[in-house]
Amino acid sequence: MAERLFFSQDIIQNWCDDEKVTFKDNILTIQAEKPRSFQLTPAFRFIKVEGDESDKLKLLGQIKTDPELEEMGADRYLNSCICEDVAYGMEPGYIAMTKPGDDEASDEELLTEFLLKNLIV
Fold first, then answer.
1. What is the pLDDT of residues 52-63, one digit of tens each?
2. Where are the alpha helices (DSSP H) in 1-121?
3. Which end of the chain is more exposed for a tag (fewer CB within 10 A), N or C?
4. What is the pLDDT of residues 49-92, one digit of tens each?
5. Where does 52-111 show beta strands of DSSP type E?
């Protein structure tokens, strides 16, 4: 089963500034002895409910792409959206899909190793 890894726009920018990765046309390339590239998809992570509403839709922490937001009937503007009359603040970023398999296992391991070494908590 494919897993979705979320990278915030800020994290990718920090990695680019530190020359650990390059990022162009939604392709993240890890700068290593044997550079590896990953196709990323723009996405948003739900980080807060605006106003006095509760998270009745249980979206906090979830990650959605623009097509998924449209499918939900959400109205997105910049880093926020309204879904069923609930306003949410969102964090922009990208997702990478990982699928365990013969060739992809080594890609997944490389990406995991990179994240463990460079992820800012």
1. 889 999 999 999
2. 9-17, 66-72, 102-118
3. C
4. 998 889 999 999 999 999 999 999 999 999 999 999 999 999 99
5. 63-64, 75-77, 80-83, 86-98
Spell out the long-range contacts of 56-65 with Cβ–Cβ below 8 A and sequence spacing 24 or more: 56/84, 56/86, 57/83, 57/84, 57/86, 59/83, 59/86, 59/88, 60/88, 63/4, 63/6, 63/93, 63/95, 65/41, 65/95
Q: Which residue's entry shows tokens 């739900």? A: 46
**Residue 30 to residue 27: CA distance in whole angstroms:** 10
Question: Which residue is listed with tokens 């013969």?
Answer: 102
From CA 57, how far away is CA 14, in angstroms rounded? 32
CA 92, CA 108: separation in Å to the nearest integer? 23
Cβ neighbours, 10 Å, residue 22: 14
Structural domain boundaries, residue 88: 3-118
